[in-house]
Amino acid sequence: MTITDKSGYVYILTSKNCEIIKIGGTDYPPMKRIKEINNSFPYKQYGIWHLQDFRQVNDWRLVEYHLHYQFRSFLNKDIPNQKELFQIAWQTASMSLNQIDETLIIKKPKVDRMFQDNDFREFLNDLFEWSGLIHWLDYQGAWSLVLFSSTGRGDILH
Q1: Mutual angle of helices 60-70 and 90-98, in 10-degree steps
Q2: Which residues 6+ apart lie within 8 Å of 88 measured at CB?
Q3: Buried b (16+ CB within 10 A) or exposed e, 62-76
Q4: Cβ(22)–Cβ(37) under 8 Å?
Q5: Residues 6+ apart with CB under 8 A from 24
Q6: Number of Cβ atoms within 10 Å of the Cβ of 58
Q7: For the stretch 30-45, what's the b/e string if a residue is b when 16 or more beta carbons lie within 10 angstroms of its beta carbon?
Q8: What is the pLDDT of residues 51-98, one digit of tens each?
Q9: What is the mean pLDDT of the chain?
Q10: Which of 21, 99, 132, 157 has the fewest CB atoms nearer than 10 Å to its CB?
Q11: How many helices (H) and strands (E) does the chain have?
């Protein structure tokens, strides 16, 4: 699939501060959009928001519209001035991302399934907090994760 003027990302965000999820779309990488969301009304009062799943698609507005329409009965109407907060489990929305017509998808995240394991995600979060890296996340926006294969002795350096 090729990138077009309508290309972008459809994403699912969650926050530990609320039971709702945000389903949205953007024409630039989700981590940049999350920074904006965490600083804009009405979303910032329910954040800090974190990326749970996303897809790069050739028409993000169309895909976002279909997801919003699919979950319209779960739209949180108690929060004014928004149409992207839903009272559903993020896994339910993620399953819908997996069912998007393949002709609309440009790219799927390669390691997204690894981060749907809550224990693993919490382990990485604890590791980043312990190492002090977590304090740089807002500045850097995102990190790459490299998993090293094991060595014969179980260590990296000999």
Answers
A1: 130
A2: 21, 71, 74
A3: ebbeebbebbeebbb
A4: yes
A5: 10, 11, 13, 33, 37, 64, 84
A6: 18
A7: bbebbeebbeeeebee
A8: 899 999 999 999 999 999 999 999 999 988 899 999 999 999 999 998
A9: 83
A10: 157
A11: 5, 5
**Domain range summary for the chain, segments of one domain joined by +:** 8-109, 117-147
Identity of residue 69? Y
One-letter amino acid at 45 equals Q
3-state secondary structure 2-44: CCCCCCEEEEEEEECCCCCEEEEEECCCHHHHHHHHCCCCCHH
**For residue 153, what are its two tokens?**
């002795």
Q: Cis link prior to 42 (omega < 30° from 0)?
A: yes
At 130 the three-state DSSP class reads helix
